[in-house]
Amino acid sequence: MTTSTMPTEITEILENPARRLLLKGSAGAVAALGIMSLTPFVRAEELSSLPGYASWKRKQDLILHSEATMETRRNAIRSGIVTPSETLFVRNNLPAPDASIVADPDAWEVRFEGVNDPRTLTLGELKKIDVQTVASVLQCSGNGRAFFPHGASGTQWSVGAAGCVVWTGVPLKAVIDTLGGPSGGAKFITGTGGEEIPDGLDAKEVMVERSVPLEVMERVLLAWELNDDPIPIAHGGPLRMVVPGFYGVNNVKYVKYVALTENESNAKIQVSGYRVRDVGVSGAPDQPSMWEMNIKSWITLPLDTTEQGRNMLYGVALGGTRTVDKVEVSVDDGETWQEAELLGPDLGPYAWRPFVLATELSPGEYRIVSRATDVEGNSQPEARMDNERGYGHNGWRDHGVTVTVS
Amino acid sequence: MTTSTMPTEITEILENPARRLLLKGSAGAVAALGIMSLTPFVRAEELSSLPGYASWKRKQDLILHSEATMETRRNAIRSGIVTPSETLFVRNNLPAPDASIVADPDAWEVRFEGVNDPRTLTLGELKKIDVQTVASVLQCSGNGRAFFPHGASGTQWSVGAAGCVVWTGVPLKAVIDTLGGPSGGAKFITGTGGEEIPDGLDAKEVMVERSVPLEVMERVLLAWELNDDPIPIAHGGPLRMVVPGFYGVNNVKYVKYVALTENESNAKIQVSGYRVRDVGVSGAPDQPSMWEMNIKSWITLPLDTTEQGRNMLYGVALGGTRTVDKVEVSVDDGETWQEAELLGPDLGPYAWRPFVLATELSPGEYRIVSRATDVEGNSQPEARMDNERGYGHNGWRDHGVTVTVS
């Protein structure tokens, strides 16, 4: 195995440790990455307890895919408008840094480039510039990957690589204004994570560095609070670049470098990673990047069985960057639809809306599906859009549940 | 001591156990009430750990006044849109029932009267009627009592007998409709708590039974979830009658009886308790009852000291039943005011809004105060309204903080 081929496999190992067993000669790479905790990475079937950096999570709410990937159980959401941090999924692209970086959060430093007055600011200084609080869905690009029949590689997320959380931080725009504005020619916001790069690996091959279009700057936050508490290390504390409405990977954890750039990052995670392409095709820069989330919904209750008679069918719906206008629910796999009620306060266009439909069910087996529509009329498609890595799945048919009524 | 005089003192003991030391001959009454846990009631200065029924709370966020009264620290709120259950204040009028009542919540029974089809329904049945989610401030009538100079009896709450939480339950209106509607002549909604009445006491003297005007029925919930989790025993689970915008006492815990009634309850807590009257006057039915909350705000950060230069002043503001329109902040005890920014999503008219004001402070001592105004133009008054029990304090002057800038 050469160094140049190693990182691809390492990425796969990190996303799906079970695949490690299929890889030959990767022992060195695995050892190099076993720095997240004292125990080496463990494959899903063996993982029975939460890793140290996430030990404060509610284990009963999570499916432990690996030490770096923990999925929120479908039944742990019910009708919650905000997902508790203890229940929120975890997905790390690299082993999390040592928790010592959140011990004195205000001392955390971020370098800003691509502005007229490039500078390094501490989190303590950022906190004094301005502050904003935004509710936003955090969702992994591969949420729903488990439904692809071609066996898309990566963590086999069902619906639980998503949560609706509240971020508090400084608007990036206010920071950029403080630093004299863009220095010219900028087309992207590029954020770099503060993870340690394992020895012997090429940083560009494994680092988390993502670029998003400059047009979304108005909504980007450099956030220090998740659900009104300091962001824990498992979720990117002490500081995370939050791009509301964009897939999880763009929300760079432990952000240590923010630049306004003319080009997208040349890190692998940007160049060929998180690119939507046909099955069997390699990732490349000319393919769509996993930026803006699409409209999506799923049922959260009931899941397997329920009793005959009146039933309340619950779920959640998100519009990505657009407010959800309505959600329809079908108990006959899409033959007929009924409009559900949206539940609770509207936390804004980036948040999700719980919904509920009251309906009568007689004994039998039901395929219950949901379909959301946003204020601009965009609806979920029926089918999945097959793609190599199983990204961005929002087809309503696959996201349904089969419930036996007795 | 006669039985008829005992309950008044018991109420005082429950609200402020330190007063127990001042009472003569009350040992029997205290013993009769020592059923909340295995340890007897302990006065504030001695309470060093959370009582069993609230052992899951964040102790560092709370001031432990007594086993029945725990206040959220002013610095535990910061800019939170929703107060975590672990941080929410606790105030019980009677010892909490045994936690066994939340073990099988769906079996909890509630009797409905004053309707055309009076019936007993289980929580499981209520859950199938309808569901709604509402964000609402929960606040004790005596929040701010500590600021009254006449030494109003009861727990000496500062600002922390309040939190903004999310309730999920069935709209009472939907239940009443299911039961054939009001049976006629109803002017009040009367809810009765499921606490056990200690032996030897007259139930009407100590029971928690509150009546609120029928006009608010549209907003009343019978709630089974607090912040998207089943309501814990400390907060009235398995079922609580929630009246958004009304003071805490009207939100009857462990509700076991709901009636539409022509008259208000004849329980002491309604007849003479929670009545606003002049200092030295006894409670009576012709005085205003502690129903609707008034507009109020307070600073949450900084509190004691801060550094010179640019500072972010945080706080929260609630409008009771009306949306907060604006909050002004003064750093010179009300001489001059600046308008603050409201932070985060608006969770509706019953929720609070965090606010922030960025300002420059040079070394010195500052009295920082805040003043909220609702969409109908109602503003906080400057002064407290003196009243016997120290209820409903929303004067801005007393709620300020004195901060030393160095």
Automatic annotation (TrEMBL), chains A, B:
GO terms for biological process, alphabetical? sulfur compound metabolic process
Q: Which InterPro entries match?
A: Ig_E-set, MoCF_OxRdtse_dimer, Mopterin_OxRdtase_euk, OxRdtase_Mopterin-bd_dom, OxRdtase_Mopterin-bd_sf, TAT_signal
Which residue ranges does the record assign to the Moybdenum cofactor oxidoreductase dimerisation domain?
289-397
The answer, when asked if Transmembrane helix is one of the entry's keywords, is no
Q: Where is the composition biased (Basic and acidic residues)?
A: 383-397
Question: What Pfam families does the record point to?
Answer: Mo-co_dimer, Oxidored_molyb
Oxidoreductase molybdopterin-binding domain ranges (all copies)? 103-267
Molecular function (GO) terms listed? heme binding; molybdenum ion binding; molybdopterin cofactor binding; sulfite oxidase activity
What is its cofactor? Answer: Mo-molybdopterin
Task: Tell me the segments the record calls region Disordered.
Answer: 377-397
User: Does the record carry Protein biosynthesis as a key word?
Assistant: no
Q: Which keywords label this protein?
A: Metal-binding, Molybdenum, Oxidoreductase
| Protein name (record) | Sulfite oxidase
